[in-house]
Design a protein that fits this description.
FAD/NAD(P)-binding domain; 15 helices; binds flavin-adenine dinucleotide; 24 strands; four-stranded parallel β-sheet
């Protein structure tokens, strides 16, 4: 593993070439110990943690230079970050051995960062801010909706993190003060940070569809956040009469889990086929095409012939939903199509989680990041990871979030522990259920580089399941998807951590 060399070579070369090696060595072997609760300490003078070495003092100045160089060598500091560096992480806490990493959100993005940082650098203070005591995964929630799995099997506790020494704050973050480097909680508590990871997932653009708001989602669930919403959709399907109409309305890209709505079509069709065989599924899609479309279309015919009707948007007709009538169950599209639903699953347009928008980390709906590190393009020392980030063409998935989180964790550890970093590599695979024992997949590797004229993630080795594949291969996909779920959740929730 070698340190990356960027265009800030003049600043960085002395370090890379070993001219600062004695200092580097001293820093590396210095005790960078912190107490587990240090992020919850009161704020010291000038926002510095108590005991921080002032810049300019020896070895403070040199350490500061080293720390700055390690941050400045990022590509984003030359381009993206230079435009909007509202926050420059101070080296003081690092020099004093009191660096605090605060993470907002305990999904595959945030929980993975927390675990990976703590395992690689046990002495760093790592605080995970997550209001939920238990996490119910969206990934595989379609299996629950289709009656293939229980909700309990998708629900995980965070207890494995105790053994690791990650500090938990089971509260929602209410605001981020980038200048003072504070996360504010609804209770009034303040958490100081030297590095912040913002991983709140998604929120919805309620209001884009007439009469569809948070309250309406209790009648026509989106089920695009797991737990109460997925349970509601499942109950509505169970209560529906045989011969009923289920309407599923996917949004435009980008949104969480691009193939998810069509996997949902299949799991629901699979359930209705035996439980309520006279029923129908109508899809009203804001898009013109969708992920793995040929393989899905083959499955509709092969397994669910006559049950599924898909209305895609085309050059003339916009089939995105314009209005819902909660009383009659009618769903209307911009093209004027009007379908009366017995069960409606309206999936609204999405944005990065509200906390990220409120902190000014977004451009429009999503948060731009440096593709090499997932550090925010808007604030140095702050990372946005998982669904909240816009990562060029890398889809929003738990697989992608966890892959990004590992890069973020490595970058934080490299910065705070003065170790070398490996070049960033990302991977994604999304499996989709078509029928029992028949799953398809799509995926690619991603490397930072120029993508569509600007810095982004360049896909390589893409793969996608095609129609007509052998049953054996589809069965392998199905089994691989189940194994992936177990592995990801074991790793993400530290289920193997020693107690
Ligand atoms: C139906 C469906 C099927 C899917 N299937 C797959 C699949 O098969 N494979 C796959 O890889 N992906 C799948 N996904 C996508 C996957 O669920 C998401 O991409 C993934 O959960 C994103 O992880 P995240 O950590 O960014 O966000 P989340 O998982 O949403 O986690 C965010 C966390 O942040 C917390 N949070 C939010 N705001 C705050 C705040 N202010 N303070 C503190 N905490 C906060 C939330 O409580 C939440 O726990 C699917 C999604 C859906 C909807």
């Amino acid at each position: 593993m070698s340190a990356k060399r960027g265009a800030n070579e003049d600043l960085v070369r002395p370090i890379l070439d070993g001219q600062l090696e004695p200092l580097h060595h001293a820093v590396k072997h210095r005790e960078i110990g912190v107490s587990m609760c240090s992020a919850l300490r009161s704020v010291g003078p000038f926002g510095l943690p108590p005991g921080a070495a002032p810049a300019g003092s020896a070895p403070g100045a040199a350490l500061a230079a080293l720390s700055r160089a390690r941050i400045d060598r990022r590509r984003f500091a030359q381009g993206l970050g230079a435009a909007a560096a509202v926050f420059a992480p101070a080296p003081f806490a690092i020099a004093s051995g009191n660096a605090r990493v605060v993470i907002i959100g305990g999904g595959p993005a945030g929980a993975t960062v927390a675990g990976e940082v703590k395992k690689a650098a046990p002495k760093l203070s790592v605080t995970l801010v997550e209001p939920l005591i238990e996490y119910t995964s969206c990934f595989f929630s379609n299996h629950y909706i289709g009656g293939l799995r229980t909700l309990t099997s998708l629900t995980h506790r965070y207890s494995g993190f105790n053994a690791l020494g990650v500090e938990f704050v089971h509260k929602a973050a209410s605001a981020i003060d980038l200048e003072k480097r504070l996360v504010l909680l609804a209770t009034g508590q303040k958490l100081e940070f030297d590095r912040l990871v913002v991983a709140p997932g998604i929120d919805f653009k309620f209001g884009a569809i007439e009469r569809y708001d948070e309250k309406a989602a209790e009648i026509m669930p989106h089920a695009w956040k797991s737990g109460q919403q997925t349970r509601l959709l499942r109950r509505k399907l169970e209560a529906m009469r045989d011969g009923g109409v289920v309407v599923i309305a996917p949004p435009k890209l980008p949104y969480r889990c691009p193939p998810g709505p069509y996997e949902r079509v299949c799991v629901i069709a699979n359930y209705l086929k035996t439980a309520k065989p006279r029923s129908k599924i109508v899809v009203l899609d804001a898009k013109m095409t969708y992920s793995k479309q040929p393989a899905f279309e083959e499955a509709y015919k092969k397994y669910y012939d006559g049950m599924i009707e898909v209305h895609l948007t085309n050059d003339i007709d916009d089939q995105s939903v314009s209005r819902v009538d909660l009383r009659t169950g009618e769903i209307e599209t911009r093209a004027g199509l009007n379908i009366k639903a017995d069960v409606a699953n309206i999936i609204p347009q999405q944005t990065a989680g509200r906390i990220a928008l409120a902190a000014g980390l977004a451009d429009g709906d999503w948060c731009p990041v440096d593709p090499e590190t997932f550090m925010s393009a808007k604030a140095k020392g702050v990372y946005v990871v998982g669904d909240a980030a816009i990562a060029a063409d890398m889809p929003k998935s738990a697989f992608a979030a966890s892959s990004q989180a590992r890069v973020v964790a490595a970058d934080i550890v490299a910065d705070l522990m003065f170790t070398d970093r490996a070049p960033a590599r990302y991977h994604n695979t999304c499996w989709s259920f078509l029928a029992p024992g028949d799953s398809v997949k799509i995926g690619a590797d991603y490397t930072p580089g120029e993508w569509k004229g600007h810095a982004g993630l360049v896909p390589s080795g893409p793969f996608v399941s095609a129609p007509g594949e052998p049953a054996e291969l589809r069965k392998e996909n199905y089994e691989a998807s189940l194994a992936w779920y177990t592995t990801l959740t074991n790793e993400m929730f530290q289920k193997m951590a020693k107690r």
